[in-house]
Amino acid sequence: MLYESSPVAIAIFASFVLAVVGLSFWLGRKGQSAKGYYAAHGEIHWFINGIAFAGDYLSAASFLGICGMIAFHGFDGFLYSIGFLAGWIVALFVIAEPIKSLGKFTFADALDAKYNSRGIKLSVAISTLVVSIFYLIPQMVGAGDLIVPLLGLPHAVGVILVGIAVTLIVVTAGMVSTTWVQFIKGSLLVFFCGVLASMILARGLTVNTGSLEPQTRSVTSEGRVLVDGEPQTRDHDLRPVGTLAALPARYGGATTTGPLGPLEYLSVLEDSRIVTWSGKKSTDASGSHTVYTPTERAGTDLLKPGGYFKGLTTGKLADKLDFASLMLALFCGTASLPHILIRYYTVKDAAAARKSTVVGIAAIGAFYVLTLFLGLGAMTSGALDPTSTNMAAPLLAKSFNETLFAVISAIAFTTVLGTVSGLIMAGSGAVAHDLVENVLGIPMDDAGKVRCGKIAAVGLGIVAMALGILFRSFNVSFLVGWAFNIAASANLPALVMLLFWPRTTKEGIISAVTVGMLASLTWILLSADTFEKVYGLSRDASPVPFSQPGLVTIPLGFIVLIVVSLLTKAQPKGKPA
Amino acid sequence: MAKNSEPGSDGPGRAARIGFGLFWVYVILYFGFIALVLFRPDILSSRPFGGVNLAIASGLGLIAAALLLSVVYMVACRVVESPGGERR
Predict the structure, then answer these.
(1) How does pLDDT run across A160-187, given as a tens digit for each residue?
(2) How many whole angstroms separate alpha carbon A567 and alpha carbon A507?
(3) Is A317 at the interface with chain B, CB within 8 A?
(4) Structural domain boundaries of chain A?
(5) What number does CATH give the domain A44-204+312-567?
């Protein structure tokens, strides 16, 4: 669909972004030492850090992707919410205590604290970089998807805007400002989503299904865009979708329910009939065509698993394994994300780390409950863009009023700012601290380390922008799933065995990280989804049985670590100087 | 379980054990839910509370359980760590 920018929207949006960037410049005067730059002086209060956890974690995938998935496919988006949150249990109960006492600045330090091995530093730094990059791509794609309807500008502009804003933030102030960016983002996100959810409940449900005629969007070989055969203009465009066809029988002939309580809303929806739309793409001599057709379904069908993960209803074993593999990767992935683990080092001690994780879980959990209502509200809002699931949440806000839409879009944009700055921190730490200083052995003084980190941050910013433009057509959640699989396969076995098995050797860790990362990466690149969406080949040509590698590659990491550790010499006791 | 970096203080060791126990509780809840999704989806479609189906109730329940367990963990750790003197 085509969008027109409103001056109000742009003004609100611009002031938000400028305020956040300005704040980071102001805070940046404080943190110029290496310790300050990377770990925020160890002084961040646990409550601030806890909300910043939420701000860090709730990325484009959570806010835009999950809402969009629920809006178009029903319950299955909520499975992502459940999986993403459950991962915090692994982080808190298995990893939190031990890692705080081990590490200094980065994840690689934590893994290497006992062995002082170049091999570990190298393999972990590379794994950190790879995971950070894969997690960056969906954020940048999401940024582009936010800019298009808000400002009416091309996708690439959004990507570049994010890249510049984040690089400025990170280069000027490092961790202190990213913590505050994420604290602000986390609070705003939960608050305004709460406002939006209340408005959804106050509005209640209304029968609003209009035309059920299929719609077609075509791109000709010359690059012109047609809608139903005619050129796409603001007056001749795709119709918004996502509507309620009928209320439950107990409402008689009424077409609207009035305000509803949260549980009421869910149960009324389950007894209603809803129209969802899906697109099917085909290509012929004149170009590529996507036909969007409606399906009227019972609420009970939508509000149970199987709307997106079709394998849950077809009964095929490979599909069930795929789903189980994804849920395992989500469960294990949170604790393995380098940009999350870094945040443990910004508080004083283990007790503060625990408290901040509890605060984080509370905020994140509350948010995921809200996404359920946002997604369902969007599903029946009559305002969805059939071509984009990512836009569901902002367009839902727009169906209430323009100002809310601008505010939510600005918040979503700062969502991306926060996540991307955290990722670039992790990546620049890996490059500057681990690769340059430790592996290459180039000595640097405090100022040099900070400068190196900033150069690395700029470089990563440029790479992120390029990839965000390159991968613009990808589904955001699919890419995040990639990152979680790789993180869990590469990092979790090494981390867990290091913490709990004394017989772990440095060769074991190096092998586990390397094999886990390469195995999951290779599997993903050979999967049916990749064959179809990246290479444009047939799904059947893929050599692997299902798309998500976690079920295979996570245990593989553990096995490799155990076998290699048993085969190599046990470490002498005591930490080397 | 690996020794913590501070020998003699059992607080962190007991905290880790509490964590482990609570972790397994959640594993049972989480993977139990996944098993239902995979093998008995019909149960998840049922509506024992009259309004909301079990699928949604379980999802909300898992989110609530995560928070509850993390609070239990925090309180339990505070209790086992305080006799040895709290680190500021």
Answers:
(1) 887 887 777 777 765 555 677 778 888 8
(2) 9
(3) no
(4) 44-204+312-567
(5) 1.20.1730.10
